[in-house]
Fold this protein.
Amino acid sequence: MSAATPETHHEKLAQEHGHHHDDGHDHGTHKSYVTGFVLSVVLTAIPFIIVMAGGFTSPVWTALTIMAFAIVQIVVHMVYFLHMNTRSDEGWTMLATIFTIIVVVITLSGSLWVMYHLNTNMMPGMNHELTGLGGN
Amino acid sequence: MSASMHSNDQTGFWELEPHHHAEGASTSLGFWIYLMSDCLMFAVLFAVFGVLGHNYAGGPGPKELFDLELVALNTAFLLISSITFGFGMLAAHEGNKSGALRWLFVTLLFGLGFLCVELYEFNHLIHEGAGPQRSAFLSAFFALVGTHGLHVTFGSIWLVTLMVQVSQKGLIPANMRRLGCLSMFWHFLDVVWIGVFTFVYLMGMI
């Protein structure tokens, strides 16, 4: 076992793959791209049709439905177009993505939660409660 | 070399020799981490829109301003450009230079089509008196959708640059690496657009 082994190993890999420059990433096939495209067209068209037709009787259900379609479509794009998997770069790509999703969820839900309560509690109509508290 | 390996065996806990990675082996991971930081920036813009999206300041709201057919057209442009970029990458991996350049050119056309429709929409809104200074809702809208549009603009400039490089130098490993990065960038913008059309346009029209 000599120290030169990793280098020759890389050279061999480079020769085997030639111009393909394969670094363990999945490049997809025509079939996978077409599958992803058809899925995204369907997942885009349905929410547009729902909203253009006026939505369901309950706006909350309409909102939840189109959000669900968006989440599924984002996963479809990640898998079929961005070729996300747990293997590329020894899982570091997936780890970075999971970390980002956590921070994004905290940012979005935290901002909306804090600002919603700020708006509700700081409305001029709420002042009588504040003065009531101040009286104590 | 063998001496260092030997001492390495004796100490045993850490490697003294640096790892030998092929040139550019970590580029895609590094670029992915950049995209994730970009994703955080978009998350903040989405949060701003979520917080300010209902503050119309007595001005026009989404229902008076947005044209869903235009948005559907824009979404179609971006979706088609995603699959044509994918076909371009497949042609490039097959070593088919002219095929890759043709697909990249088609992608560029759809990207420019998207930008034209978006600029038309912005121009239309500003002429109706619904510019970014009209209300907090419109400020947040222009910041979010405009940032996405800027990304598509820079992506298109990058695409032209790479088409010139590929046509001059061919599908050399360095160009394949750059194409791979742009491919991730382009598909990532499509993912961000899913959020935009869902949360800004469709939710606004409910």
Chain A has two domains: 27-83, 90-136.
